[in-house]
Amino acid sequence: MADLASVTDHIRSAVGDNSGLGKTVKIDLGDTGKIFIDGASVPNSVTNEDKPADATVRISWDDFIALSEGRLDPMMAFMQGKLKIDGDMMIAQKLAPLLKR
């Protein structure tokens, strides 16, 4: 079973030194924690800090795992209100490929 640390590591390796995001994104997993992706600095960094971001994606842990495993479509999750985005929507769309497992 995945936990926050392993998911953070996975995203860190997917992001690499330069994800091309050019912005910061926070994934807010509620009580489980946060994943902060700094795609604006080089090299890019991924931490569990709770910092302001250009875009914040709010999703439950279970829905996040389903999304990363391809069992939940990002657009459907958004339409159903399972996935909420505050801030820059374009950044959130660029994020999707980085979350796949």
From TrEMBL:
Lineage start: Bacteria, Pseudomonadati, Pseudomonadota, Alphaproteobacteria, Caulobacterales
Naturally occurring in which organism (per UniProt): Brevundimonas balnearis
Listed SUPFAM superfamilies: SCP-like
Residue ranges constituting the SCP2 domain according to the UniProt record: 22-100
Entry protein name: SCP2 sterol-binding domain-containing protein
InterPro entries, A to Z: SCP2_sterol-bd_dom, SCP2_sterol-bd_dom_sf
